[in-house]
Amino acid sequence: MIRILLVGALGRMGQQVVQATMGQPDMQVVAGVNLVPGAADFPVFTNIRDVDVAADVVIDFSRAESLDDILDYSMAHRLPTLICSTGHNDRQRARLVEASEQIPVFFSYNNSVGIAVMRSLVQKAAQALGDAYDIEIVEKHHNKKVDAPSGTAVMLFNSLNETRDGALQPVYDRQSIVAERTGNEVGIMSLRGGNIAGEHSVFFCGTDETIEIRHTATSRGVFANGALRAARFLVKKSAGLYDMNDVLGL
After folding, report:
1. Does pTM top 0.85 for this prediction?
2. Cα–Cα distance list, 136 to 83, 122, 159, 179, 225 (Å)
3. How far apart are CA 60 and CA 57, in angstroms?
4. Which of 88, 124, 140, 141 is catalytic?
5. Of residues 145, 200, 215, 237, which has the active-site annotation?
6. Is 141 noted as a catalytic residue in this protein?
7. DSSP character for 56?
8. Could you give the CA distance from residue 180 to residue 174 in angstroms, rounded to a whole number?
9. In order along the chain (250 residues), what is the average pLDDT of each group of 10 residues?
10. Burial of 21 (0-12, 13-18, 19+ CB in 10 A)
11. Is 145 a catalytic residue?
12. Exposure string (b/e) for 185-209, b if CB count within 10 Å is 16 or more?
């Protein structure tokens, strides 16, 4: 049995993880952490430092500002840790790398299996099409999402940029630019509305044709199921930094 300590346990994604574990006989949420107290079928603590329940893995679906406390706890207890929250700054990302030298750390802006496949596809398309095609990224999310662009959009841009040896430049606000588009620009556009679980499109725009690679999540369940799949992978690993490509062997 894989015992899960779930950070952000009472949030929307936390509840999705709890629901997803009900169909997994080898996994169980044994404790949770949530800034706002509430009832659950397991003990819920308002501070991770107070958790006194034994676990095998930490899954974080909270906020970026909780990262330091989570990593401190995980390293003190030698626990594999999945960071599934977004919006981290450069210092926090560096902290993730440091922690991965001591414990297994999974970090991905998106836990969907489909997004991992999409990431591989856009890289192959960028390599095949070369610089003759303009690239644009559009992401859509619900009106409660606090960060923009989405971490997944940033991840897709970074994957594309790897194929161009870092020559691409993200553009977030063309309103302030009075000039023609340059060949190394990648526009990244964000839409927030309703209860959109998540949609990401990468457009390759050439002469007389446009190729669109799109992923649509119709519920948050895909992210919870991906996190559980990653947790199974992570508990068997030694210290290191992993993402969904490692889980899927891409």
Report:
1. no
2. 27, 11, 13, 17, 29
3. 10
4. 141
5. 145
6. yes
7. S
8. 10
9. 97 94 94 92 96 97 94 98 90 96 93 92 96 96 91 93 94 84 93 94 97 94 93 97 90
10. buried
11. yes
12. bbbbbbeeeeebbbbbbbbbeeeee
